[in-house]
Write a structure and sequence with these properties.
The chain has one domain. It is 15% helix and 15% strand. The longest helix is centred in the middle third of the chain and has 6 residues.
Length: 65
């Protein structure tokens, strides 16, 4: 399931992992505190820590290439 959330709603997700899917240069320029960077082209094959109590939240700008 996917949906858009606002910044204030983000705090309601508690210990969710925030994954920034932008490229590394965009991430280095600025990102949400606590986010991890996994570029969009790597997100399906990346090893993410799994905790059934937590959600994963993807943040970034999606566009067709």
């Amino acid at each position: 399931m996917s949906r858009t959330i606002t910044a204030p709603e983000l705090k309601d997700f508690g210990d969710a992992m925030l994954v920034d899917i932008r490229d590394s240069s965009a991430f280095e320029y600025g990102h949400i505190s606590g986010a991890v960077n996994i570029p969009q082209e790597q997100v399906l094959t990346a090893e993410l820590p799994r905790d059934k109590k937590n959600s994963d939240i993807l943040q970034g700008r999606y566009h067709q290439r």
